Structures are given as structure tokens and as C-alpha cells.
Fold each of these.
Amino acid sequence: MLSFDDNSFLTDTNRGTPMGDLLRRYWIPVLLSEELPEPGCPPVRAQVLGERLVAVRDVSGRLALLQEGCPHRRVSLFFARNEGPDAPDGAPGLRCVYHGWKYDLSGNCIDMPNEPKTSRFKDHIQITAYPAQERGGVIWVYMGPAESQPALPELEWAMVPDAQRFVSKRLQFTNFAQAMEGGIDSSHVSFLHSDAGLWNPDRAQRDTGSLSTGLLQDTAPRFFIEPTDYGFLIGARRQSGPSNYYWRITQWLMPWYTFIPRDADGPIGAHAWVPIDNESCFAFSVSYHPDRPLTSQETNSFRHGGSIHAVVDEETFVPLQRASNNYRIDRVLQSTVSWSGIPGIAMEDVAMQESMGTVVDRTDEHLGSSDAAIVAARRRLIGEARALAGGADSPSGLDPASQRVRSGSAVLPADAESWVDATAEIRAADSRYYANS
Ligand SMILES: [Fe+2]
């Protein structure tokens, strides 16, 4: 549990708060690339860390996020014209449709046609403009101090060729930390995402020795946490037969990245949990294969809500399964084949996390040993935010080289000396994706 004050500290990411200041030191995934499909395309709204912004790709292809409200009379620049060479002044920029004030992507007001030509008023008008870049099918924004801007993240999913990756985005009505804790918690996988045969002893017998059913044979994993530069490594150890352990290894990367290990040769799963405001967040869900393009079967399945993806409303990114329809829980399914009765892994997670309330009351929870990684992530975020507020140089996890990690699973002999050493190879991202850096 957390004290009331620590819970507020962890979950308040608005500008000027210690957690808000910490998160603004990182590049933030904000849009899918396809939301700004080409130079000069219409701007789109994007709220991040409580700040209302519009994302723009100007005619030259440059990206930026600008404050949404035009400083003149505060109307939304979502309605603005994204102008290019055929504009009256021939300059790239965003022109407010209300009175024609125009801004470049550095936030300068470059035209004010409803004031006298001799007026210098426009020279005093500046709007908030954040740099943005594209990598890995995602547009990233940096909202921190200019002098502290780090290099773009080098997570493996962002570095593989586009054909090897599928990214989706969904809106979740919870604080980002709550969503992220769901991504860290690997003990729920044996329950929430399993089938209704979980407790069937015949089935457990039949499956003995199978890797993928390591999750079902031992539902009370022991968690080991190894702090690292980027965050920490989590080893979830389950009994696998008399003399082996089944290890699921995931990383938690500052400040919100989580991963899902793969059992066989399928795609790897990854998430970023990004605050929209204190009561909602975007879940960016990624399936990628480090060695080959995704098959059309895989991509089709992801598009239709397979694996960790969800079917969402195209405008709002709110999943079609939602609280108001009880996530389409099917009680017949629940009593026959599905443990939860809720269709889809992603929506099982969302149902659990949203049911806690938008900001869960962490003063009134009862964490057990299987929640060790959740506790560690809270401590790390709170500790780093305090340190930064106290004058520390720079938070951890900003060095792209430290982000070249991969989740995985392995069966190791029970007497293996170190799970960390024994899994070093399967935890490394493929070096060929970093050849030029
Ligand atoms: Fe889950």
C-alpha cells in the first residue's frame, strides 16, 4: 500500500508536479504515425500529461506538438489550416481559422492579418511548441527543458523494420501508473488470461513438461528483482517438473515501458503506458518479431483485437468493449472455456484495471509477495521524481544503449547458479538493429 500523499505523488503528472517534471524528461509516445499520414495533413488533437496540444506534420515533413488554444481568443488550433507554398505568405505553418493568426512549428506567430500591417504585435506572441520525431511507427514528443533533451529511445520494437512490427493504441480510463502496474504484474497471467480448465488436475497431468503451460503448473511464482540502469529486470520463477524452474523474464524500463515474454517463436509483446491526464492514459501495444516480417495472418489477427490488441473506435481510440457494456463479458463462456468470460486479452486487462476506479486507492490494498515488481516500480518512480525535484542531474533510463533489451522465457535447472547470467543471451536485443549508432 501507499500513503495518501505518496499515491497522489505517484499519479499526479500535471506540469509543475514532481512526477510531471520527471516524465517530461523522457521522449513520450503520443500518436501512431498513421494519424499524421503525410506532410501538410490536417492536425490532430493530442492531450499529454494534462496538456492540451495539437500534433502537426507541416508541408516540409517537420513534426511538432503545439498548444491547442490559439493565444488570441483561445479557440482550438485543431480547426487550423496546415499551410504550405500555396498560402498567401508561402510559408509552412498552422493558421487559425478564426482570425488568421499563423504559427510556425517553433511556436512563433508569423502572420497576424487582422492587425495593421505596421503592427509589431505578432512579434510578442509565442505559443508552446514541443519537438516531435518519428520512430517505430510512433510519433514521440519531448516536453522537458530544451537543454536536457535526450536521444530518441532505442527499444528493440522501435528499431526493427516496419514489416516486423504492429502497433496499436487504445484509450484507458485509468491513471497511467495503474495501467502500467497491470503490465508489470505477471502473476495474473495464470488466472485472468487462462482458460476455464485451470484447476482441472487431469489437464495439469497431461501438460507436464510443456513450456507454455509452465504458467499453469505453478500459479504462485516467486519474483526476483534486479535493479539496472534502465529500471529493473524481473524474473518470475515457477516450478517446472521435479528438477527445473520455468523463468519468465521481463524488464520494466523507466518510466513506463513493459514487455511480455514469448513462449515459442511468435512475436514479442511490449507496451508503453502514457498519461493523457491523471484519470486516463493511452496504452500503446506493440507486437514485433525480431527476426522476420509479421505474417498477414498475425497482422490481421492484431487488427481484429487478437493478442494484446483491442478493437477501438477510430476517432477516439476507446475500445468497443468498455465499462458501459461490461466489456461484453459472456457468462456461458466463463463457465465453459474462458476463465474470465471477457473476449480478448487486452480487454480482460482493461476490465480489471478500470474496475479499480480511475485512480485506485492504494491506501486500501493488500499487496503480497507476487506484487514485488509493482512495489519496486512505484518506489523507483517516486524516488527518481524526488531526486530530480531535489536537484539531481538526470533521471535514469535515458541512455539509449541501456534500452536494447528483450523479454523471454527459459527452463533452467533448479541448481543453476544465476538466472541473470543464464539468461543474458535471450535478454539482449539484436545488435544488427543498432549498426549505425
Ligand atoms: Fe494481462
Amino acid sequence: MQNKIRINGSRLWQRLMAIGEIGRIAGTTGCDRQALTDGDKASRDLFITWAEEIDCEIAIDNIGNLSATLVGSEPELPPVITGSHLDTQPTGGMFDGIYGCLAGLEVLTTIAQNNIKHNHSLKVTVWTNEEGCRFKTAMMGSAVWSGMMTPEEAYALCDDNGTSVLDELKRLEYLGAPVKATAKAAFELHIEQGPVLEQQDKTIGVVTSVQHMSRHKVTISGVEAHAGPTPMSMRKDPIKALAKILPALYEFGNDSGVDGRVTIGQIETYPGSNNTVPGELMFTIDLRHPIEENYKQLVSQSYKAIKSICEELNLPVEVGCFWHSHGIEFDKNCVNSVEKAVAHLGYSNMEIFSGAGHDACNVASVVPTSMIFIPCKDGISHNVNEMATESDVTAGANVLLHAMLDQANTFASNE
Ligand SMILES: [Zn+2]
């Protein structure tokens, strides 16, 4: 019985479309449902309605994380958990986060309706403020749950109007009591948010890691000078350094293999006048790689090149890291449960790393965790045009179902 069980893909799809109506951006399939707004509450309330249909225990913790639990036959055992987020970017889509929450609920619904026995409880969590756009700390709810951030730090975060997280949790009646962060295993199912699975024509991404990533600011000083009278050889021009630094950085990126990422997203000059040699240049570099050794090499090569090029041109330079996220190797045992589920279901698949941060990164610091990806159209996400197919949505949820059942230590009688 357990091996033959499948989720109801059309029910899952209809629920995705129903939540997608909340905060719909007119004339698009996109949504604006930022964290702890009325729209966010409405989507959570609808989630609770569906969870209560299968008699889940509903709980809200001290940062508004909402969870629905299907209690196992041995409730004292740690649960097998899954989850994601219902909040969106200001111009977000219908799938980023929402899919992981509703697929988790679909898994619980399928198990409840088929009377599949499980001794570990099964829990799906809606994490608060994953996107970090209204309150500017991404993955906030999972950070508090996993002890990486105190509730007080999170409560004090304010949006641009000065409204705090605590104000909104109280207003929306989503402020509960602290819970202990515990689970036997955790999974997060998500759209890839990149183009790899679609390009490789694979249905499932077995996510093994999250890449190391960091952002750096470079400031090079020059001397402002008139564009006409000042001979080229007599200029202290920081752009001369940039002209040599950029090819070097791109070369390091290419040399680090297909998984290396070098992005120069901001370049600013002072005073920014079209006929003045800039007195100062600032640019940022975003560096990423899934393998720690290669990542560290990318960072050290970049710093070395920037410093030596500026020294050669006799231009003072400051370079420093202003944001860093350590990469994550997901739990082998959880990854193995996903691999077994994919093999059992016969979906095309590949191992993949995550290029973005997810709640699963925080969860992984406390309990064994891994992730599952499905393709999204053209790799587009954080965009009203974000789209996935019903068949991929169904496949991913079936993988989640069997991975969770594998970890829930089900009874032999289910076989
Ligand atoms: Zn997400």
C-alpha cells in the first residue's frame, strides 16, 4: 500500500491557484503578499482551514511560524518535518515557497486519507518572513526557530513605515509560545529558481548542498581632474584599475568551473560627471561556489588581483566583505531518502546545489535536512511570470511524500 500511494495532483494545483488569488497583481499571475500583511494572514488562515479538514494539530510559535501536525502512533518521537513560506516578494509568483507549504499539506492529506500508519508525527511548517523584503531579514522565522536569531531581535525589525514585526504578529493574532526546535528529519520542496533542471530536461533536482556566497565592496581612490587638459599619463584614474580588474575577475570565475559565480552588480563613480576623471570608484562583487575550497580560492584570487592592480597603478584601495553565508552540505541520510523516492517513482533527476538561500539552510543547522527541486519555466523567480507545470508540481510532491514516509519509520504492515 505504502509503495503505491500517490498525492492528488489536481487538488494540490487547485490549492496553489486558490492561494495565488490572495494578493493577486492585476493582469498577471503574480502576487504581492509580503510578510505579516493582511494578505499573508489570509493565506495562512486558508492553510489552517485545509489542515483542520484532516484533523491536524495547529500550532503557532513565538515568531508566528505556523505548523500543522499529523500525530503519529508514538507522539513522543521527534517529528519528520517539511515546510516553506507563504509570503512573497512585492512582485512575486505563485510558487516560490507556497509550493513547499501546500505540497507538505498535500502529503499529510494523502497519508491521512489513505490511513497510512506512521509512528513519527508528520509536520508541515509555514515559516514567517522568508523573503525579507518588508522586514529586511530573510529567512527570519526559521532563524528564530533554529536559535540563530533571538525573538527580540526579530520583534524589533520595522518596515519602512516604522511598524514592527511584534506589532504585526499581535495585530494579526499570530503570536504564540516558544517551541523546542526538534525533528528526526526535515525536507523542503521548492521550485529551482534557476534554469538548470529545465535545460537538462530533468523533473527532479536532488539537492545536495547550498553554495558558499559572499558580497564584497571595493573602493578605489583617484584624483578628480578635467577630461580635457589632463594628459592620460598624468591622471590618477580609478577606472584604469577597473579596466584591468574586471577581466581578471571574470577569468577567475571561468577557471573555477561551471559552478563558480562572479557578479559585479553595482558600479558607482564620484562625482559621476561625464567630463571629469572620477575621484572615487565603488563597486561590489558577489562571489559564489558550492565547493568550499574553490570558493575560498575565488575570494583570495580576487582580493590579491585587486590589490596588486591598484598598487601597480599607485591608486589607494579598500576592499572588504560586507555579507557572507556559509555553504551547507545537506544530510546524507535525508538526501538518500530523496534518492530512494525518486528511483521508486521513476522520475528523471539529477544532483544539484542551491544557488539561493532557503529556510532549509537555517533548519539544517539544528536537524538533519535536505531539499528537493522541480523546474520552473525559464528559471524565472521573484517575478510575476514565475511558472511551473502541474505535472512537475505533482512529481515533486510525490517525491516529498515518499521521502517523508521513508523517514517516518512506517510499519512493515504498510508495505
Ligand atoms: Zn522561497
